[in-house]
UniProtKB/TrEMBL annotation:
InterPro entries in UniProt: Low_temperature_requirement_A
Entry's transmembrane regions: 69-88, 100-118, 130-150, 156-179, 285-304, 325-346, 358-378, 408-426, 483-502, 514-536, 542-562, 574-591, 597-620, 641-662, 668-686, 706-725, 737-757, 769-786, 792-809
Cross-referenced PANTHER family: BLL5714 PROTEIN (PTHR36840)
Pfam families for this protein: LtrA
Protein name, as recorded: Low temperature requirement protein A
Keywords: Membrane, Transmembrane, Transmembrane helix
Keyword Hydrolase found: no
Length: 814
């Protein structure tokens, strides 16, 4: 025994012995093992007692955990959309150097909050309540900081500084308290010292005039960025080993991919809002299509050439590579923020006068993105880029001539340069594995159904704009007629998403034909969303044409591609039924509003009921197996769109809070709105242990359709909640309005109904009494709330939602 490994003497594997040494724990002999789990062999050296599973084990993210982004991380990213929109508008407000430097500094601070959250979920298990609490807290701090962006160098400087400092310090102090003595705790200790040293600069700077404030905050942000770059070295403390500074390449690469898609989505969102406000004439629609093309080309350039994987660079090279990637992503995201600013100018003034600052604003975004992309390839992947620098030189060379052109011409020139860069990559990089025939390629199944493609994630961002539009339309007029119209429009927008999600489930999302189809459907969906405010007025034909066109074009592309496959009958049946409903949509577009509502509601019923019965057509038979979807994929898609709906709530609440003011009542109202979103997110995943993917895989195809119906009701509830949140944030103690009270109560009640049906239909809940009881409680208290101001109404309503969520958390799972 003398020359062997000491672990062999007590029967412990080499892997467990190594983990014991890392955690500085003493392994237990076999006769003292607990039998309550596979990780029960650790021994607490401080308490001298055996434990079934230590707190450290529960909190630390293990290498075996999948890299898929968890729901709390997706939820956090919604704050970034709002922050980027705020920063883009701040850039647009003043093109001067001082405002530009201030906004750049604010962007760097917001970005570092995101980096901190991404690293937290890389170190800690994001499925643990402790980690989720940290991320949710950072999200709230980030939203407050984003809301204060317009006046961060004015009356709201203290708010921004306090939110920024709290986001970092509270995170690290919480980790220190929970993981004291663990390497992760030691790392957070050093990081907390760095952030604590810069906190006085942020707080003191908030009370100074603008110029000294800019100087102090610039020093603070430089130190914040430098801390992670030097491994948070602290005098008299032993430097952290290299392995304690590393992050997981697969997880951090996925997080960076996700946030960049979100940043490009912010360009789309800003463009859609600008189009809706400016008007839907032909020139502005053309400008919007051009802005959409520029955003798409930037996204495409980010992922080229094929084979450039951040995961491999992070895993194989020193830990500083991941830090460089975070620095350089900031430059590229700055480019997208400026591109969004240029898109707003382009759409609002497509043929306006030639102005140097407008031309510079349109050119600046793509120029800075290309610069960041070149540095990214050089410093992270050690490649010598020439395409991005060439594009930069071309843009700089033509910029003097651009000052004499209107925004539409400038943007067209930018699009041509970006298109040339994308095409110049050609076949560089290894082609993804392809099937032998085009048909086999279209039907090829993805290796990991839970991992969504970049095109699917990009498509989902259009839903935020659409849901925001419906919520704003609903709030503009609370009459029964407008509520009914808004719900029909919401159903149409949602059904476009459902049909697209099913398409990417049945067919290969990596097939170029399907990718192009997703982009076309996304563009049509954005035009639908832009037409929402006047869909029952002058732009009814645009809305109906876009809706019918998406479904018919999808069928005209897919059906010929399936020639020779028995699955062609399925797609042909689908397109026939969408053709029937298209008649109702298009005819209704030419009728008065009341008749239009009737026909469009009938069309929605046709589309929904035909899906339930499998789109039956005489003479075209399709077995039940052809109507099945992949449970893991469709569950992930439904989860994603639900979180996107909550994103609309977060976005609307943040905009209302930012524009209405920061007094105590409005701050409480904003906190209530955020709590509502968090509770709706939490309740969706309760009780734990349920898996929608397993249910879909093990039941009839109709169950997946039923899941679509239930999610539609819950999303309708979030849209109404978003409208009500704007009410009580803007007028927390404003005038008493019975319609407002019904809106606040009705949104939460509608969501509860959808959530109850979801549990009943999907999981066969035996006694679904919790949701109905909560709805009855809301109905009982509503008469007493009719004469109360909006904030007073919101408090008990949110409290009832909280109690319902607690009941869901404690309910058993069969």
């Amino acid at each position: 025994m003398g020359g062997g490994d000491p672990g062999e003497a007590i029967g412990i594997s080499q892997e467990k012995l190594i983990l014991c040494r890392r955690l500085r724990l003493r392994p237990l002999p076999p006769d003292r093992f607990f039998r309550r789990g596979t990780n029960s062999w650790l021994h607490d050296r401080r308490g001298g007692r055996a434990v079934a599973r230590t707190r450290w084990e529960r909190l630390i993210r293990t290498p075996q955990q999948p890299r898929e982004i968890t729901f709390v991380e997706l939820f956090f990213d919604l704050a970034i959309i709002f922050a980027l929109m705020q920063l883009s508008r701040r850039f647009l407000r003043d093109f001067g150097w001082e405002n530009s430097l201030q906004t750049l500094l604010l962007l760097a601070a917001v970005w570092w909050i995101w980096v901190g959250a991404a690293r937290t979920t890389d170190w800690l298990d994001p499925n643990q309540r402790f980690t989720q609490g940290i991320v949710i807290g950072m999200m709230f701090a980030g939203l407050v900081a984003a809301a204060s962006v317009p006046e961060a160098f004015g009356e709201h400087s203290v708010v921004f500084a306090a939110a920024n400092v709290a986001a970092h310090l509270v995170r690290h102090l919480s980790i220190i308290a929970a993981l004291h003595g663990h390497p992760v705790g030691a790392r957070s200790m050093r990081a907390a010292i760095w952030f604590a040293s810069t906190a006085p600069l942020w707080i003191v700077g908030a009370f100074l005039p603008t110029t000294p404030q800019l100087v102090l905050w610039s020093v603070a942000i430089i130190l914040d960025y430098a801390g992670v770059g030097v491994g948070w070295r602290v005098p008299r403390l032993e430097p952290l080993p290299e392995e304690h500074l590393r992050v997981r390449g697969d997880h951090i690469a996925e997080r960076h991919r996700q946030v960049f898609i979100i940043a490009v989505g912010e360009v789309i969102l800003t463009s859609g809002i600008a189009l809706s406000r400016a008007g839907l004439d032909g020139v502005r629609i053309g400008a919007f299509v051009l802005a959409f093309a520029i955003a798409g080309l930037i996204a495409r350039a980010f992922f080229l050439p094929r084979g450039l994987a951040l995961q491999e660079a992070v895993d194989r090279r020193p830990s500083t590579v991941s830090v460089r990637a975070s620095y350089l992503h900031l430059i590229m995201i700055l480019g997208t923020v400026l591109t969004a600013m240029g898109a707003e100018i382009l759409i609002s003034q497509p043929l306006g006068e030639a102005r140097a600052e407008w031309s510079a604003a349109i050119l600046a975004g793509p120029l800075i993105f290309l610069g960041g992309r070149a540095l990214y390839a050089l410093r992270v992947f050690q490649r010598r880029p020439w395409r991005a620098p060439t594009g930069m030189l071309l843009l700089l060379a033509i910029s003097p001539a651009m000052v004499r052109l209107p925004p539409l011409a400038v943007a067209g020139t930018v699009a041509v340069v970006l298109l040339g860069i994308v095409f110049s990559y050609g076949r560089i990089g290894a082609d993804p594995p392809r099937a032998e025939t085009p048909l086999a390629q279209l039907l090829q199944k993805r290796e990991n159904p839970r991992q969504l493609s970049a095109y699917e994630l990009f498509f989902d961002l259009a839903m935020i704009f659409a849901l925001t539009q419906v919520s704003q339309r609903l709030l503009a007029d609370l009459s029964l007629g407008n509520v009914a119209e808004s719900m029909v429009l919401l159903a149409a927008v949602y059904w476009v998403w459902v049909a697209t999600a099913w398409s990417t489930d049945w067919y290969n999302p990596d097939d170029p034909r399907l990718q192009r189809l997703i982009i076309v459907v996304m563009l049509a969906g954005l035009l639908m969303a832009a037409a929402v405010p006047t869909a029952f007025g002058e732009h009814g034909l645009l809305f109906a044409g876009a809706y019918a066109g998406t479904h018919l074009v999808r069928g005209l592309v897919i059906v010929p591609a399936l020639r020779g496959s028995p699955l062609q009958a399925r797609s042909l049946r689908v397109v026939i039924w969408f053709g029937i409903s298209a008649v109702l949509w298009l005819v209704g577009a030419f009728l008065p509003a009341s008749d239009r509502l009737f026909l469009w509601a009938a069309a929605i019923v046709v589309d929904g009921v035909s899906a339930w019965f499998g789109w039956p057509v005489p003479g075209l038979r399709a077995p039940q197996s052809h109507l099945r979807v992949i449970g893991e994929h469709i569950a992930e898609r439904y989860r994603q769109v639900y979180i996107i709906a909550l994103g609309a709530l977060v976005l609307i609440s943040g905009r209302a809070y930012s524009s209405a003011g920061f007094d105590d009542f409005r701050t409480l109202a904003f906190a209530l709105a955020f709590t509502s979103a968090a509770l709706m997110l939490w309740s969706y995943f309760l009780p734990s242990g349920r898996d929608l993917g397993t249910v879909v895989n093990s039941t009839a195809p109709k169950v997946a359709v039923a899941a679509g119906y239930c999610h539609g009701i819950m999303i309708a509830g979030t849209v109404v909640v978003a409208a009500s949140a704007e009410v009580y944030i803007r007028s927390p103690i404003g005038p008493v309005n019975a319609a407002w009270t019904l809106l606040i109560v009705g949104g939460v009640a509608l969501h509860m109904v959808g959530r109850t049906l979801f549990g009943l239909v999907m999981y066969g809940a035996r006694h679904p009494w919790r949701g109905p009881l909560a709805v009855l409680v809301l109905a009982a208290i509503t008469p007493g709330l009719l004469m109360a101001p909006p904030l007073v109404v919101a408090v008990p309503v949110v409290f009832v939602a909280f109690l319902l969520t607690v009941l869901y958390a404690r309910s058993p799972v069969r």
